[in-house]
């Protein structure tokens, strides 16, 4: 029992001290069960790419669920990033390149000088993505073409 207690304390401290930890609303109703449902869908113990979409009208808690799942999964991945407001950023060409740059810098832990277009960014991302498990969350995606960010 001591080992389990130590593991729980370490996990709790890691979640609260980690700079990647995202704020989730105080006392969100039903969050634990929704987070567990998402964890089952993701099956992170299996290798491979997983893509899960949370769909619904605005204000029902999709971002809150995504943040809670992100916080739960962060310790299990080598690199993580949570890119928010994709829909708004996608309206501006420069913002698209900025999103791609942010994604690469956070996943590769390296500075990316300049991205001139999304195709070049995708090539660079594929060529330089590290050989480790990565967690990428794109929040507020409203068109499939926005998934071009992750190749």
TrEMBL record:
PANTHER family: DISEASE RESISTANCE PROTEIN (TIR-NBS-LRR CLASS)-RELATED, LEUCINE-RICH REPEAT-CONTAINING PROTEIN. This is NB-ARC domain-containing protein. Residues 44-144 form the NB-ARC domain. GO terms for biological process: defense response. One of its GO terms (molecular function) is ADP binding. InterPro entries: Disease_R_plants, NB-ARC, P-loop_NTPase. Pfam families: NB-ARC. Gene3D superfamilies: P-loop containing nucleotide triphosphate hydrolases (3.40.50.300).
């Amino acid at each position: 029992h001591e080992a389990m207690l130590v593991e729980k304390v370490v996990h709790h401290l890691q979640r609260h001290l980690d700079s990647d930890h995202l704020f989730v609303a105080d006392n969100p109703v039903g969050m634990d069960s929704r987070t567990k449902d998402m964890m089952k869908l993701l099956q992170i113990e299996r290798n491979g790419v997983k893509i899960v979409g949370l769909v619904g009208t605005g204000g029902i808690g999709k971002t809150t669920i995504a943040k809670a799942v992100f916080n739960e999964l962060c310790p299990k991945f080598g690199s993580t990033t949570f890119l928010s407001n994709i829909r708004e950023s996608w309206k501006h060409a420069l913002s698209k390149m900025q999103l791609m740059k942010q994604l690469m810098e956070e996943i590769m832990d390296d500075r990316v000088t300049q991205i001139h277009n999304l195709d070049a960014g995708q090539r660079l991302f594929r060529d330089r993505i590290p050989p480790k498990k990565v967690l990428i969350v794109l929040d507020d995606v409203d068109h499939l073409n926005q998934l071009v960010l992750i190749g």
